[in-house]
Design a protein that fits this description.
Quinone Oxidoreductase, Chain A, domain 1; 361 residues; binds zinc ion; Rossmann fold; 7-stranded mixed β-sheet; 29% helix; 26% strand; zinc; GroES-like_sf; NAD(P)-bd_dom_sf; NAD(P)-dependent alcohol dehydrogenase; alpha/beta
Length: 361
């Protein structure tokens, strides 16, 4: 079938809206008509890393409506409303432990399907598809039951689209990785889509003190409205000292969403004894760490991908939180029609919008 997609053709060239051919679903695949797709930082970093001459359809926060299912697909029907997330095998040790984010085949299943293996063509030319098991900057995608979650049809798909990556990453880092409680001080570094989700999750589970650190006054104000008790300008040279002055000797838990080495260094300094820092922000940085600081104060640094959650059980919980008014994700979102995808990417990069979501008519 012919579909409409935003195609990245390398580097920072604008995405081009093109008509592509999408092959029919196999017995194990599900054809989804995309209604909305969030734009996530990984889309931009992947786009920049892809060489010219290797076109790809990005997008990995898709939400839509099932249009067809393969003959072996069970539990999903035509007309179902679904959220999409990353792909996983379902059979390796980590998948068996309910941690599909650490699937042994993660890279293969999520980096995109290249050349003859791709379901997408521009004329005769293969276009890399299946990015995160979806490539959702497109009117239609092929997914599987491993990376779709059926939700009630009354849920707004534009609001819920980012649940499958940014929101579960931030919220899950709080609820499943750090698990702070009413006596904790949680410092969240960077309040973009992931960090704001962490703020809202922390408020929802009753974390004692929630601290948001960012360079943007507007974002700090929004973080405040969404539940941060304390906001700190990340440009302040004494940001760590401001956190250690809050009580407990500093943050019992910290979350870095920026991937920036200087910010991570501040996060480490802000931790109290035996405090834990979780890293979820991918960046180009390597990390110079003063080992003595970790040893002398018993601090822990750990990484986490996609919130250490099982999307099949976690995304329905996020939907319920949203229903209950605990996760007002729409306050972060600006919707853009597909033909304005480049404006949406630019606005995400400039910080003008926290979470752009592409919509399809
Ligand atoms: Zn696996
Ligand atoms: Zn993402």
């Amino acid at each position: 079938m012919n579909i409409t997609a935003a195609v990245s053709r390398g580097g920072d060239a604008p995405l081009a809206i093109e008509t592509l051919a999408l092959r029919a679903p196999t017995a194990d695949e599900v054809l989804v008509r995309v209604v909305a797709s969030g734009i996530c930082h990984t889309d931009s970093t992947t786009r920049e890393a892809f060489p010219p001459g290797l076109p790809i359809v990005l997008g990995h926060e898709g939400a839509g409506i099932v249009e067809a299912v393969g003959s072996r697909v069970t539990g999903v029907s035509v007309g179902d409303h679904v959220l999409m997330t990353y792909q996983s095998c379902g059979e390796c040790a980590e998948c068996s432990c309910d941690l599909p984010g650490y699937c042994a085949h993660w890279a293969t299943l999520n980096a995109g399907r290249f050349g003859p293996d791709s379901p997408l063509r521009a004329g005769e030319e293969p276009v890399t598809g299946g990015f995160f098991g979806q490539s959702s900057f497109a009117s239609h995608v092929l997914a599987t039951t491993r990376n779709i979650v059926v939700i009630d049809p009354d849920v707004d798909l534009v609001s819920a689209a980012p649940f499958g990556c940014a929101v579960q990453t931030g919220a899950g880092a709080v609820t499943h990785v750090l698990a702070p409680d009413a006596s904790s001080v949680l410092a969240i570094f960077g309040v973009g889509g992931v960090g704001m989700s962490a703020v809202m999750a922390a408020r929802t589970i009753g974390v004692g003190t929630v601290v948001a650190v960012d360079l943007s006054p507007e974002r700090l104000e929004l973080a405040s409205e969404l539940g941060a008790d304390v906001v700190i300008d990340g440009g302040d040279t004494d940001a760590a000292a401001q956190i250690t002055a809050l009580g407990n000797g500093g943050a019992t838990h910290a979350l870095d969403t920026t991937g920036a080495a200087p910010v991570i260094a501040t996060a480490i300094d802000s931790l109290t004894a035996r405090g834990v820092l979780a890293l979820v922000g991918l960046g180009p940085s390597t990390l110079p760490v003063e080992v003595a600081k970790l040893i002398g104060r018993g601090k822990t640094i750990r990484g986490s991908i996609e919130g250490d959650v099982n999307p099949h059980t976690y995304l329905p919980q996020l939907v319920q939180w949203h229903r209950d008014g605990k996760l007002p994700i729409e306050r972060l979102i600006r919707a853009y029609p597909l033909d304005r995808v480049n404006d949406a990417i630019a606005d995400a990069a400039s910080g003008a919008v926290v979470k752009p979501v592409i919509t399809f008519s």
